[in-house]
From TrEMBL:
Residues 10-163 form the Nitroreductase domain. Belongs to the flavin oxidoreductase frp family. InterPro entries: Flavin_OxRdtase_Frp, Nitroreductase, Nitroreductase-like. The keyword Ligase does not apply. This is Oxygen-insensitive NADPH nitroreductase. It comes from the Bacteria. The keyword Cytoplasm does not apply. Keywords: Flavoprotein, FMN, NADP, Oxidoreductase. It comes from Saccharospirillum mangrovi.
Length: 245
């Protein structure tokens, strides 16, 4: 155990921030920490767009499901998977770029996630709170238009940054034996572990909400996966030049 691991294990999503500003040099340092993340074949396929408080931020809050903290967080970043600059690089050398491959979508998206998680770890090490905003994909085409995203760029998620004005509990994660397998995929004991975890999660929700919510993890997941999961994503991504082959 060390300070880095303690910071990682103490992660919480923060949805209420103080008005204390974050200076631009701090934001720059966090983004540089993101750039230090591993990148597949050195493609560096992540672009970050910082959106200041104002009409554009308010519109992003609306598009992400009217999440007020998107509009009010001191800093809001949009992480974009970006293969557009690679097209520019190919054009610079008169080399036809073969794009649209599923592998390119995967590597660009993974690059973006690794970049963002480095930013998050760096931010939390500095005492900042964060909240990922996957809701940007609710109306992804409108987000792309607002941010003037060119072909081969898509917004993966947003990130709120600020000094926390709340102190939520750490949400319990799945038991280690469920996620860490030895030698092969063996889920023979998972039902037993999940039953224990369900009881833990129900107690967490009941204590956090004053018994206004009583739900297990498996109940939550089974309910979520009976609904369509943003079916507009595939045509949008294909329109941006991804997942064509």
């Amino acid at each position: 155990m060390n300070q880095t691991i303690e910071t990682l294990l103490a992660h919480r999503s923060i949805r209420k921030f103080t008005t204390q500003p974050i200076t631009q040099p701090v934001v720059d340092t966090l983004v540089q920490a993101g750039q230090a993340a591993a990148t597949s074949s050195f493609i560096q396929a992540c672009t970050v767009i910082q959106v200041s408080q104002g009409p554009a931020r308010e519109r992003l809050a609306e598009l992400s499901g009217n999440q007020s903290y998107v509009a009010t967080a001191p800093v809001f970043l949009v992480f974009c998977a970006d293969m557009h600059r690679h097209q520019v690089a190919c054009d610079q050398h008169n080399a036809p770029m073969l794009s649209g491959f599923t592998e390119q979508f995967l590597t660009a998206s993974v690059d973006c996630a690794l970049f963002a998680q480095n930013v998050v770890v760096a931010a939390e090490s500095m005492g900042l709170g964060i909240c990922y905003i996957g809701g940007l994909r609710n109306q992804i085409a409108a987000v792309g238009e607002l941010l003037a995203l060119p072909n081969l760029v898509y917004p993966v998620f947003g990130l709120c940054l600020g000094y926390s004005d709340q102190n939520p509990e750490v949400k319990p994660r799945l038991p280690l034996p469920v996620v860490l397998k030895q030698e092969r995929y063996d889920d023979g004991a998972d039902r037993v572990h999940l039953a224990e975890y369900d009881a833990h999660v129900r107690a967490y929700y009941e204590s956090r909400t004053g018994n206004n919510k009583s739900m297990t993890w498996t109940e939550q997941i089974s309910g979520m996966l009976q609904k369509e999961a943003r079916p507009h994503m595939l045509p949008y991504l294909q329109g941006q030049g991804y997942l064509l082959k």
